[in-house]
Amino acid sequence: MNLGELGDFLKKRRDRIRPTDVGLPSGPRRRVPGLRREEVAQLTGASVDYYIELERGGGAQPSEQMLAALSRALRLTRDERDHLYALAGRPLPLRGGSAAHVHPGMLDLLDRLSGTPAQVITDLHVTLVQNDLAVALLGPKVPDSGMRASFVHRWFTDPSSRALYPEEDHAHHAWTFVADLRAAVARRNPDDAEARELVDDLKVRSAEFADLWSRHDIAVRRDERKRLVHPELGTIEVNCLNLVSEDCRQRLLWFTPAVGTDSADKLDLLGVLGTQTLAPDRS
């Protein structure tokens, strides 16, 4: 661990990022073009004092979650992300885990979709990053790591996760989750431990999953019309659109109102309601 080098690296990367690059207003009277320390703290969910201490080369060793947040806030390339982890003395996270690297270009697109719910997930349905409207619509991503970070895992092991969809749609979504997961697992290396452990655990814990998995159905989730249940606004019918990364490991999802419904008005209200009434674990 080299906290002195880490602090200097963070400062240099902060200096090159403009507020508009990360979805923040530029504001008047900026003495430098880069981000302010308090803006990086805001983007990462850290306290200002903690981030200042990091740049000064002091404080405790940053956690894997904090390093992932810093990588995204500062729009680090994969090589820069790897360097950050090395300076912090942390092993690189799993490619598909909740701290996985997100391409800066995909993060830039996410920032530009400020008027519609959008998020980046992995091919195993682990939520990596969300905009505010996605949090308001779907709930914040769960803090869990490992298999429980996958929404597919929670779908088949935690009945409360299904409250996101109307009950009459559950069978359809169960089938599509499994068919999409089988396609994702097939794209990965046959020895991929993360995918194998997820499937093996679900086959033991869920008879429904085991039955669906045994059918060998394949159906990659692309564009889809679905109904979502919001605790305040009721059922919202949306089109779920996908932009897939080059290696197919990540997807940028965004949600638009379905034509012929009142969903456009409800999504407008969503921005007003925000996340005040939402319970966690609806991601």
TrEMBL record:
Pfam families: HTH_31 (PF13560), MLTR_LBD (PF17765). Residues 34-81 form the HTH cro/C1-type domain. GO terms for molecular function: DNA binding. This is XRE family transcriptional regulator. It comes from Saccharopolyspora terrae.
